[in-house]
């Protein structure tokens, strides 16, 4: 796996990719830490595509990402992460709503666990998941970053928080 560090308005992001696609986007103080190992190769120049798309996102000109993805995770987690990619830019959903789309409201807690383990912050928009009452809850990058991302995605006259 190759990895690099990219600057962002939210602090440095550690990014990693396999030969199949992007495997991780983590904040410097990401809860759970980064998932690069001592045998992985640092190559900051190998992420021009990721740098460009993140730059467009933070500039407000990109609403979806077009990158091959290869996140490590089990089949259920991958289904949750795929569902997250379908939450429209500027909108939010709840753990229960995602669970319903995956086959049952009883899976809301499992959805929360998978959401919390999403290795592709920002690119797979787990920041768009809020509590059932609409409150900001849990984000591996910290709630201040979640608020920043949700605010970034809202037109000035439609701020959520």
Uncertain residue ranges: none
Class computed from helices, strands and strand pairing: alpha/beta
Sheet bearing the most strands, described?
4 strands, mixed
- The name of the CATH topology of the largest domain is Arc Repressor Mutant, subunit A
The CATH class of the largest domain is identified as Mainly Alpha
> What Rg do the Cα atoms give?
15 Å
Strand composition percent: 5-15%
Number of alpha- plus pi-helical segments: 5
User: How many E strands?
Assistant: 6
- Give the N-to-C terminal Cα separation: 38 Å
Can you tell me the overall shape?
globular
Average pLDDT confidence is: 90
What strand line-up does the widest sheet have?
Answer: 3-2-1-4
- The topology string of helices and strands comes to EEEEHHEHHEH
Provide the domain count: 2
Helix content: 25-40%
Q: Architecture of the largest domain in CATH? A: Orthogonal Bundle
Can you offer a commentary on this structure?
- The protein has 161 residues and is an alpha/beta fold.
- The protein folds into 2 domains: 2-59, Methylated DNA-protein cysteine methyltransferase domain (Double Stranded RNA Binding Domain, 2-Layer Sandwich); 75-158, Winged helix-like DNA-binding domain superfamily/Winged helix DNA-binding domain (Arc Repressor Mutant, subunit A), CATH 1.10.10.10.
- It is 30% helix and 14% strand.
- The strands form 2 sheets. It has a 4-stranded mixed sheet with strand order 3-2-1-4, with no helix packed on it. Strands 5-6 form a two-stranded parallel ribbon.
- β2 and β3 form a beta hairpin.
- α2 crosses α4 (108-116) and α3 (95-101) crosses α4 (108-116).
């Amino acid at each position: 796996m190759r990895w690099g560090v990219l600057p962002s308005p939210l602090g440095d992001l550690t990014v990693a990719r396999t030969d199949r696609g992007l495997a991780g986007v983590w904040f410097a103080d990401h809860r759970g830490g980064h998932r690069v190992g001592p045998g992985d190769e640092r190559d900051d120049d190998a992420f021009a595509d990721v740098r460009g798309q993140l730059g467009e996102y933070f500039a407000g000109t990109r609403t979806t990402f077009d990158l091959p993805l290869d996140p490590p995770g089990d089949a259920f987690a991958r289904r949750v992460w795929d569902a997250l990619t379908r939450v429209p830019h500027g909108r939010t959903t709840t753990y229960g709503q995602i669970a319903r789309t995956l086959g049952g409201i009883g899976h809301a807690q499992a959805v929360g666990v998978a959401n919390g383990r999403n290795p592709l912050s920002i690119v797979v928009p787990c920041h768009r998941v809020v509590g059932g009452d609409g409150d900001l809850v849990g984000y591996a990058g910290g709630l201040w970053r979640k608020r920043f991302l949700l605010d970034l995605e809202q037109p000035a006259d439609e701020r959520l928080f």
